[in-house]
Batch of 2 targets.
Target 1
Amino acid sequence: MDKMSCPVPTYSVLSNEEIEMINESSYFVPYKKGDIIFRQNTPTSHIMYIKSGLVKIYKEGRNKKVIILKISKENQFIGLLSIFGENLFQYSASALEDTEIFYVDIGVFKNLIKQNGGYSIHLMRQLSLDGLQIFDKLINLSHKQLPGRIAEIILYFSDEIFKSTVFEFPLTRQELAELASTTKESLIRTLSEFKNDKIIELDGRKVEIKSNDIINILSKLG
């Protein structure tokens, strides 16, 4: 790693000495698709930053029921809510595709935050965005009907993850159902209805949005 490079975003507020401090306390770990990055109820020890790949953030409840909270992509931190809130991870993370993660020692990172108020503000913004995203998801799950939830998921992958109206779901049908908080059978039925109504084209995991207007209306109206 180049001395003046940094494995995590500097937000243009880190000094050369602070960048070097992070470099000396960080290391890189590659994960294969399906690998567990960390598990719920295990101790927190490092700051994690996605260099490349996609990561599924999920929580396991009673009777091993799983709720997928969000999908994180490259250039995003993962686990911040747990790292700064608890000593144990409150959720799990796994790689949806081959993924590269940088680890930074949590003690070094906390010292950096104490020393650099500008960097702290940027991290607080990231923490707020993560919390608000989960908050919005819980509200939508309780207020939106299934077609609205499925439309929102399609838009989420189209607008936030892939930036394209043509993409492949990185999740299985079961995982998509967990993301929408529904059953696999209900998810498949709703996707088939969208296809029959020519709102989307669907071929296995490949999706093409044919009517962006209708998808947005369904997502908003729920």
Target 2
Amino acid sequence: MNRFLKDYFYYTKNEIRGVIVLSILLLIISIAPSFINFVPTNNDIDFLDFEAKAALIMAMNLDESTNYENKQTDFEENNIVAETFYFNPNTAKKSDFEHLGLSSKTAQSIINYRNKGGKFYKPEDFKKIYTLKAADYQRLLPFIQLEKRNQNNYKPEKEAQPNRIVEQFAFNPNTTNKADFERLGLTARTAQSIINYRNKGGKFYKPEDFKKIYTLNEVDYKRLESYINIPKKEKPGPNFTTAKGTENDGIMGFSTVPKTDYIKKSTTVEIDINTAKVEDFQQLKGIGAGYAKRIIKYRTQLGGFLNINQIQEVYGISKETFESIKPQLIQISKTIQKININTTDYETLITHPYIDSKRANAIIKYRKQHGNFKSIEDLKNIYAISAKTLERIKPYLKVGS
């Protein structure tokens, strides 16, 4: 029996090892499922968290896209219906740009650009506004109107020059040069118009003829009227005056008609310079209606004469004429109209012959910065007013009622 077993069930050492290894493997395989069940597993991939995050990202993108679309929609719905009109992008208001069909944002961008010193020198510069759509630029380009000199040479305008001190003095419009007209406060264009008028044969026979200059505004004419001095030899004869006539009446459309308002001259009459009327002054030798009116106008601008010598300051009255009439001038009334420098305005100050625009502006600015003047002497603190000027204007000023 033992021999039988040995003959049929005999294994070599290698075979025995193989059986053992195989048995172990079978054992492991048989018990592995049970062992694995004790290990926590997650056989299915959980996409819920990923999907949630992806949905969030998509929602954010969608929101941004929606917001953009909403903004575009809001713009299209709220945008004012575009109007068509010419405009200057350097001066137009925000509301003007919006009426032209631009969005409020673009209109404000233009205003901001200008506030930071930006300027449009040619129509193409309008493209500088980064928020301006190409379609709007093309639509508005034909309606952009810039200053003429900007359109011609596309150069920046020069900085505004400081205000010139306007001088007032007697002048003959038939002989005064361009520089003197500008000193009188006229623009270079108006001064040149006068020169051109004369070069073409034009002549001024009486002060009113000065209004023929079409570029001369009414304010300047009124301001300079009393300073126009046309010598008698340039007028149409001693016994005639000028009046509008027909086209056959002679030179410049004026004809000559006899004078009928002649006032007899006197070398003995006395004239109170602060109360005399036009007819009174006309009684003086060498003083006609024009000079008489100028004397009264100057007296009004001053607020009254302080002394007889101020008659010499009236435009057109020569030293010889003044010396001849001086013995007949008296000053009984000494009432002076004074300007309250604590309440007056710039326009009132510059009407006084002794106060130019520079000094008037300085007085107003000083009052705003330091409060009311306590006395006239406070004007000494103003650089533009010298001691000499102060002494001259002091009698015509006051600080209280």
